[in-house]
Give the backbone structure.
Amino acid sequence: MFATPQMKRLTQYFFRGLMTILPLGLTVYVLYLFITWVDSLAMSLISPIIGDFYLPGLGIVLGAGAIVGLGFLVSQPVTKRLLSWVEFPFTNLPVVKSIYSSLKNFADFFAPHQKDSQQVVVLRMPGHEMSIVGLVTRQNMHGLPKGLAESDQVAVYLPMGYMIGGYTVFVPRTWIEPINMSVEEAMRSTLIAWMASKRPDVP
């Protein structure tokens, strides 16, 4: 039995509605899980101080306040020196050093105070028509082992679609061209493999 045009139209509408509600529903659900987890974690930490007193969302408010306060403290010169002492074992133990340094460098790359050094570029090899969008992670080769890259090269991170990995390449500066796009926009577009967000209307 063949599907009628009306049935095809209903099927198209069904899947269009499903594709519309799925991102919204999953986003709300993930946010709910995250907020619930943060709230319960914060309350478990402060419950010895405030006892059984509780208001919905109190843990999130107190947790956000604590993070803001921590950010203010680590911005002070004296606290920075104390933080360096706290970081000492994490930056010197063999295995822990690799994990901690990698995570810290990754977080620092997206930090607000690093905005000036962040750059989204299009990488084009001479003689090739293919273009690749990447992020400049290093403007010079100072501090790297000799022979790893040339002095006039830059390090460009090429993220893979759906964030399953990426590659870091050292290329001549003339191969890259900055584009007017924030790092957040580039990473978000890479996450969905640069798929177009607008769909043509169903006739």
